[in-house]
Amino acid sequence: MYSILPFGQRGLDSFFDDFERSFFPDLHNRVPAFRTDIKDEGDHFLLEAELPGFRKEDIDLDLRDGVLTISAKHEETTENRDENDRYVCRERRSGSFHRSFDVSGIRENDIGAAYDNGVLTLTLPKADEQPAQGRRIAIQ
Predict the structure, then answer these.
(1) Whole-angstrom Cα distance, residue 112 to residue 110?
(2) For the chain, which has fewer Cβ within 10 Å, the N-terminal or C-terminal residue?
(3) pLDDT per residue over 75-131, tens digit each?
(4) Percent of the chain with pLDDT over 70
């Protein structure tokens, strides 16, 4: 928002932005939900997303309007009880992550996915590039 305000003028919006940053400093310095590597393999891109601890059933891939969203949700409960059926230890862990990627220029119907050893691998075939069509523009 700062870049669209002329001459560096900062008003009430900047006050609230600074206020938020002072109370939630990590909010603006977060690492992505999960790490990804994207390689250009010539005729396709190879996207590798690290999702350790997730099962294949925990992962959803959604493709809508040129945007690919990878979502993963995990819930785990561990219980240890003594002989009187009282808790000695009971732990719960849950989490969900999602990231979205612009896949314009990708042949959406040919996207492939595999999951092995905590790494989701997506093959994203490039769409055939249409050469730019030149044309003359008449001056009125």
Answers:
(1) 6
(2) C
(3) 776 666 667 767 667 666 667 788 999 998 899 999 999 999 999 999 999 998 766
(4) 64
Q: What is the DSSP letter of 136?
A: -
Domain ranges of the chain: 7-125
> Are residues 99 and 119 in contact, defined by beta-carbon separation less than 8 angstroms?
no
Classified by CATH at the fold level, domain 7-125 comes out as Immunoglobulin-like (2.60.40)
Contacts of 83 (CB under 8 A, 6+ apart): none
In angstroms, the CA 72 to CA 76 distance is 13
Tokens 């400093």, residue?
Answer: 25
Query: pTM for the full model?
Result: 0.61
The backbone region for 7, taken as left when phi is positive above 0, alpha when psi lies in -120 to 50, beta otherwise, is: left
Query: Residue range 30-55: average pLDDT?
Result: 86
Q: Tell me the C-alpha distance between 38 and 68, whole Å.
A: 14
Give the DSSP H or E segment for 30: none
How many residues are recorded in the chain? 140
Alpha-carbon distance of 104 to 53, in angstroms, equals: 30
